[in-house]
Amino acid sequence: MLTRFLTNYIQRHTHPLNRLLHLFGVPLTFVVTTILVVESEPWWWSVSSFVGGYALQFLGHAIEGNDAGEVVLVKKWMGRPYREFAPGKDPHDPAAGEDALEG
Questions:
Q1: Residue 5 domain flag
Q2: Nearest Cα to Cα of residue 68 among 53, 88, 47, 79
Q3: Could you tell me the pTM of the whole model?
Protein backbone atom coordinates (compact mmCIF):
# COMPACT_ATOMS: atom_id res chain seq x y z
CA MET A 1 0.00 0.00 0.00
CA LEU A 2 2.82 2.42 0.87
CA THR A 3 4.68 1.50 -2.32
CA ARG A 4 1.56 2.18 -4.40
CA PHE A 5 1.03 5.54 -2.65
CA LEU A 6 4.64 6.62 -3.19
CA THR A 7 4.63 5.51 -6.83
CA ASN A 8 1.41 7.43 -7.49
CA TYR A 9 2.74 10.47 -5.59
CA ILE A 10 5.93 10.58 -7.66
CA GLN A 11 3.98 10.20 -10.92
CA ARG A 12 1.66 13.08 -9.96
CA HIS A 13 4.49 15.43 -8.92
CA THR A 14 6.93 15.51 -11.82
CA HIS A 15 7.39 19.26 -12.31
CA PRO A 16 10.33 20.59 -10.25
CA LEU A 17 8.40 23.67 -9.09
CA ASN A 18 5.47 21.51 -7.97
CA ARG A 19 7.89 19.40 -5.93
CA LEU A 20 9.46 22.50 -4.39
CA LEU A 21 6.06 23.97 -3.48
CA HIS A 22 5.06 20.66 -1.87
CA LEU A 23 8.36 20.55 0.02
CA PHE A 24 7.26 23.74 1.81
CA GLY A 25 3.47 23.36 1.60
CA VAL A 26 3.03 19.92 3.16
CA PRO A 27 4.98 20.65 6.37
CA LEU A 28 3.38 24.09 6.62
CA THR A 29 -0.07 22.53 6.32
CA PHE A 30 0.37 19.71 8.79
CA VAL A 31 3.47 20.10 10.96
CA VAL A 32 3.54 23.85 11.52
CA THR A 33 -0.24 24.04 11.97
CA THR A 34 -0.12 21.26 14.57
CA ILE A 35 2.72 22.95 16.45
CA LEU A 36 0.85 26.27 16.48
CA VAL A 37 -2.30 24.60 17.86
CA VAL A 38 -0.37 22.68 20.53
CA GLU A 39 1.53 25.81 21.56
CA SER A 40 -1.80 27.70 21.85
CA GLU A 41 -0.76 30.40 19.42
CA PRO A 42 -3.45 32.78 18.15
CA TRP A 43 -5.96 30.89 16.03
CA TRP A 44 -5.31 33.00 12.93
CA TRP A 45 -1.70 31.77 12.81
CA SER A 46 -2.90 28.16 12.68
CA VAL A 47 -5.53 28.91 10.07
CA SER A 48 -3.04 30.95 8.02
CA SER A 49 -0.48 28.14 8.17
CA PHE A 50 -3.04 25.54 7.10
CA VAL A 51 -4.52 27.62 4.28
CA GLY A 52 -1.12 28.89 3.12
CA GLY A 53 0.32 25.39 3.01
CA TYR A 54 -2.60 24.11 0.97
CA ALA A 55 -2.39 27.15 -1.32
CA LEU A 56 1.23 26.26 -2.11
CA GLN A 57 0.22 22.69 -2.92
CA PHE A 58 -2.71 23.76 -5.11
CA LEU A 59 -0.44 26.22 -6.93
CA GLY A 60 1.99 23.36 -7.54
CA HIS A 61 -0.75 21.25 -9.09
CA ALA A 62 -1.89 24.16 -11.24
CA ILE A 63 1.68 24.42 -12.54
CA GLU A 64 1.86 20.64 -12.99
CA GLY A 65 -1.44 20.65 -14.91
CA ASN A 66 -3.35 18.15 -12.77
CA ASP A 67 -5.86 18.19 -9.92
CA ALA A 68 -4.71 17.97 -6.31
CA GLY A 69 -5.41 14.63 -4.61
CA GLU A 70 -8.25 16.02 -2.51
CA VAL A 71 -9.87 17.49 -5.61
CA VAL A 72 -9.54 14.16 -7.44
CA LEU A 73 -11.23 12.40 -4.53
CA VAL A 74 -14.16 14.86 -4.37
CA LYS A 75 -14.62 14.82 -8.16
CA LYS A 76 -14.63 10.99 -8.13
CA TRP A 77 -17.32 10.99 -5.43
CA MET A 78 -19.39 13.46 -7.47
CA GLY A 79 -18.91 11.56 -10.73
CA ARG A 80 -17.17 14.56 -12.29
CA PRO A 81 -14.22 14.43 -14.70
CA TYR A 82 -10.82 14.97 -13.14
CA ARG A 83 -7.19 15.08 -14.21
CA GLU A 84 -5.10 12.85 -11.98
CA PHE A 85 -1.90 13.16 -14.02
CA ALA A 86 -0.41 16.04 -15.96
CA PRO A 87 -1.14 16.04 -19.70
CA GLY A 88 1.08 13.46 -21.41
CA LYS A 89 2.21 11.96 -18.07
CA ASP A 90 -0.53 9.38 -17.37
CA PRO A 91 1.33 6.11 -16.70
CA HIS A 92 -1.77 4.12 -17.74
CA ASP A 93 -1.87 5.75 -21.20
CA PRO A 94 0.49 4.04 -23.67
CA ALA A 95 0.78 7.25 -25.71
CA ALA A 96 1.82 9.20 -22.62
CA GLY A 97 5.07 7.29 -22.37
CA GLU A 98 6.12 8.67 -25.72
CA ASP A 99 5.27 12.24 -24.69
CA ALA A 100 7.05 11.81 -21.38
CA LEU A 101 10.21 10.67 -23.17
CA GLU A 102 10.10 13.63 -25.56
CA GLY A 103 9.41 16.23 -22.83
A1: no
A2: 53
A3: 0.84
